[in-house]
Amino acid sequence: ADGLRLVRRRGELMKYAGEIAPGGMAAILGVDILVLEQICAQASTTAEIVQVANDNCPGQVVISGAMPALERALDLAKAAGARRAVPLAVSIAAHSPLMAAVQAEFAASVADAAITEAGTPVVGNVQATPLATIADIQADLSAQLTSRVRWTESIQFLIDQGVTTFVELGSRNVLTGLLRRIDRSVKGFSLGEPKDFQG
Predict the structure, then answer these.
(1) Structure pTM?
(2) Beta bridge pairs of residue 166
(3) pLDDT for 198 beyond 80
(4) Dist. CA 143–CA 67, nearest whole Å
(5) Alpha-carbon Rg of the chain, whole angstroms?
(6) Orientation of helix 2-20 relative to helix 103-112, angle to 10°
C-alpha cells in the first residue's frame, strides 16, 4: 500500500512539473549512446537542457528536456544518421532537470514512505547497482525524477552476476523485447495476462 501511494504521488508530481516546467521527450533509434550524449550536450544551453532519459537498449534511447533543446537534438540526431528520431506524445520531460521543480516534494514523500532494507537484492536504475540500505533505496527513488534510467546497464549488471532468466510482470512484453536486444543469450518470459500463467 505504501508503495502504491508513492507511485501515485510521483505521477501527480510529475504531471504538475510538466505544467509549471513544460518540456518533451523523443525516441532516437540507431545512434550510439555516447554520440547521443554529445548531441544532447551540443543542443543544450544554460537555460535549455536536454539529456538522455532512458537507455533502453543498444540503439534505442529516449531523450528529454526543454522543447527548443529537444528540437535541436532531434535535428542533430538525424544529421548523425539516426534511423528514427521521433517526438513522444507526452507533456512532461521525465528524467530531466525540468522535474527538479517537484524534487523536494517527492523526496519528502519518499522519506515518509515505510521503506525497509531490501531482503532480496534490488538493482536501482539510477546507478545500475544493488540497493541494500534504506538510505540507498530512498536516494535512488528520489533521484529517479531527474536522472537517466540506466536499463541497459542494470540488465548487464544482472547478467554479469550470473542471471540467465528474466520474468517481466506487466501488461505487455516491452521489457522482454529490450532484453533480447541487450543480450540474446539470456531468456525472457512475459507474464501479463491470465493465459500467460497457464501450462
Answers:
(1) 0.92
(2) 188
(3) no
(4) 22
(5) 18
(6) 170
